[in-house]
Amino acid sequence: MPISQKTKLDDIAIDRIIEMAWEDRTPFDAIKFQFGLTEADVKALMKKELKFSSYKLWRKRVENCKTKHLDKRFEGIDRFKCKLQRAISNNKISKR
């Protein structure tokens, strides 16, 4: 079933999913938790929304990234965001 039929995503949600997919520390499970999209759905969305060369670069990064898949993560990492990051409000990150 295509992504558009599963979940109606607006432009803001699509931008956020792409941003989360590019972040090395954000696992696919976090995207599924927030937006209901599986890893395959995210890959299809990225392929549709990005230039093909950007998509290939992203896929290469994801294949080798241990933090994108919870099964490959180091033990003890059980959060979706850095513990130094303030709760997201107006997209500001606390300074040290």
Automatic annotation (TrEMBL):
> What InterPro entries does this protein map onto?
CHP03643 (IPR019882)
At the top level, the lineage of the source is Bacteria
Classification via NCBIfam families: TIGR03643 family protein
The protein's name: TIGR03643 family protein
